[in-house]
UniProtKB/TrEMBL annotation, chains A, B, C, D:
One of its GO terms (molecular function) is DNA binding. Residues 103-137 are annotated as: Disordered. This is Single-stranded DNA-binding protein. It comes from Paenibacillus oenotherae. The keyword Magnesium does not apply. The keyword DNA damage applies. It holds the Pfam family SSB. Keywords: DNA damage, DNA recombination, DNA repair, DNA replication, DNA-binding. A motif (Important for interaction with partner proteins) lies at residues 132-137. PROSITE patterns: SSB (PS50935). Plays an important role in DNA replication, recombination and repair. Binds to ssDNA and to an array of partner proteins to recruit them to their sites of action during DNA metabolism. Homotetramer. The lineage of its organism: Bacteria, Bacillati, Bacillota, Bacilli, Bacillales. InterPro entries: NA-bd_OB-fold (IPR012340), Primosome_PriB/ssb (IPR000424), ssDNA-bd (IPR011344).
Length: 137, 137, 137, 137
DNA sequence: TTTT
DNA sequence: TTTT
């Protein structure tokens, strides 16, 4: 069934990269997307949308994206729930990205030099456009 | 900034219609959208996405949509949070719809005869396509 | 780069199925999508959008879709051009579909009984959702 | 009915601004969007998509967008046709944009100094996000 | 008639 | 817990 999301926004933090027990990479981050007509008067100015990526996309995001960077995300909304350690059911709504496009050249920020592997733009000046199946394996 | 969602799915229940203190209509419902490739073996088969509508759209949804009905929703993802009655902050991610299209002729279900006002398809057989600004007033 | 189209509309004719010299199936049809706010007074009421599909999607569309049937199409805009038989360059803009969802149960119309293979809805009543890579091989 | 297009690409030329007899601004340009997986071997690398904008959006595009600039466009596909001066019917498929987002700071290029009014990014560094109804009046 |  |  149709379930399609397209976002442009900025990362609120560096992405977090993890591996599943079976060795699959997944990275998560939050995208801040400015609201179109916020008056600025006490109103919230942005939505903060949780993004999940898998596999090559996850690794590319972890390598190239950083806090504050602008990017476009294409994916679908996923809902899931789990029981937390207080026995309470927690409901999650998030976006599983199958395509992430970096919209800014990036110099790796000082805050995470160990992970960044430089600039996602190759010598010809064209940005990388990473894509991936979003099946959960 | 760009924040666009398009969904096709079925209502899990009848919509809930409310009015703000200032008299604006809002209706909420959950849309079940089948996942594209679920194996069916213990996997979840659908995502359950919370939808919010306002004004005319809210009233039209309350009048014409019912549990199980198929519709298309266009909107944006909104995040907000509030403190619940235990002093705990609750984070919400939902879709604010600015356009809802009914994809099935509907006979009002018996479960809510008082509110349904019949069939959203006028005499010429073309479905109604309701639209609305999604500004929070 | 981002190039995403989502449409809901009705076929203006039965799809046309063809095979490339290398044996790949492709089907084409036109989708009529009603304009949101047409006054009806001399204005055009719909856009007529040319759709191209490939492979399994092409064959499923040829088998199950018919003139007048409602469906949702997800894809990307493609432009190409060729020289016609008068030596004039013709520019084409069309939608290459990578996902087509049938939104109506369909009894095969009498006009094309040889090709239709019945109803795209299996016994459990859930519509088929066909998907395919949209790479031109 | 649902008809939604989202594109990210670069202008192939400066936009063309015109006014209708009744005084409404409209601007047109072509967006080059790179294809996701072009091998580069004789294949076309991009689609060239004709964009139409109206009113404030038209004027903002004419003022701030220039050849080569990156932007995001949200809109719908429109088809129309007319008879050309040789009595031949010409069919047009184009995107009517209702939202254009500039994705790069722009110094006005030398090629059109008279029209450019500088930088679409105000002092606070946030890009302008222009929006408009896309009704043809 | 095409952009980086 | 939030980005420019």
């Amino acid at each position: 069934m149709l379930n399609r999301v397209i976002l442009i926004g900025r990362l609120t933090k560096d992405p977090e990269l993890r591996y599943t027990p079976s060795g699959h990479a997944t990275s998560t981050f939050t995208l801040a997307t400015d609201r179109p007509f916020s008056s600025g008067q006490g109103e919230r100015e942005a939505d903060f949308i949780p993004i999940v990526t898998w596999r090559q996309t996850a690794e590319a995001c972890a390598n190239y994206l950083r806090k504050g960077r602008l990017c476009a995300v294409e994916g679908r909304i996923q809902t899931r729930n789990y029981e937390n350690n207080e026995g309470r059911r927690v409901y999650i709504t998030e976006v599983v990205a199958d395509n992430v496009r970096f919209l800014e050249r990036g110099q790796t920020p000082q805050s995470s030099p160990e992970r960044g592997q430089g600039d996602p733009f190759p010598d010809d000046g064209r940005p990388i456009d990473i894509s991936d199946d979003d099946l959960p394996f």
